[in-house]
Amino acid sequence: MQDIWGKVQLAEGEIHYFEVGDLHLWCTYSDQEVWLASAYSSELPDNISEEHPPDEVSWSRWATRNNANKIEIQPVFPDLSLVVNSEYALKVSPDTQIEIFARIPIWIRISIAENDYQLTELPTVLLSRTWFGTFTEGELCYYATTKARRTLAGIDKKPYLVSCPITISNKSATVLDFEDFCFRVERLGMYKYEEELWADETKIIFHGEESNSDVIMTGKLPQGIKSEQAVATPRKKIQKSLATRTFKRLIEDTFTLS
Question: Could you tell me which InterPro entries the record lists for this protein (predicted)?
């Protein structure tokens, strides 16, 4: 499995090629500038060269302080919340708590290694955008389809997916019946363990369809993972818990934006 995370020393004219998810990335250093080119599988012919991007893919150039030629490539969470479609409907009885795992596509952040100056961020998979909530109370999200799995045993490792443990507790008097939910990832950290990416735990407490759910980023790490294995800090470091609408979408998928 290709491991692209970490620091990359760019030599004059030497091209480094990476593929993660649907993203293809070429990096080089030329005339005291960092050059990056990227494209997605759907935009490229079947046979591409790792030595040079196709003519239709343009380079972006950065002149950097001290002519720095070492970059760092890090995994990060998407820059918006995700509406996660669990593929199969799930029912949670009253006074029941379950743990599920959602695997979502990550973004990559490219920075100058010596001063952490951010050059760009790129999604590894292009996702549609959608609106979650009402016209007056809602938020712009990405839309992702995944399985709400009860276990990840036997599941293939994929370097462009982060596995997110989510505990759902139904504190209402009715059955929680849902196919999708709003997953707010901006307060989660990311960890690398045995060539896989993991997030810390999210706990969602459901109080009924007409009430907000409590969403708590507990900071609890999956078994075997230590804080020293962190590869990305949360995009937002404050407010570890919030009360917000999580399960009920009042605007349907026809409002998917792109």
Answer: DUF432 (IPR007366)
pLDDT, one tens digit per residue, over 104-126 is 999 999 999 999 999 999 999 99
Does some domain include residue 258? no
Q: In this structure, is residue 136 part of a structural domain? A: yes
> Closest Cα partner for 112 from 48, 144, 67?
67
Mind listing the pLDDT tens digit for each residue in 154-204? Answer: 788 899 999 999 999 999 999 988 888 889 898 899 999 988 999 999 999
> Where would I find the beta strands (DSSP E) of 125-236?
128-133, 138-145, 161-170, 176-183, 190-193, 196-199, 202-206, 213-217, 230-232
- Structure pTM? 0.86
121 and 108 in contact (C-beta within 8 Å)? yes
Q: Same domain, yes or no, for 17 and 96?
A: no
Range of the domain at 207: 76-107+124-244
Q: Are residues 235 and 171 part of one domain?
A: yes
Helix (H, G, I), strand (E, B) or coil at 227: helix
Do 38 and 53 lie in one domain? The reply is yes
CA atoms of 132 and 141, how far apart (whole Å): 7
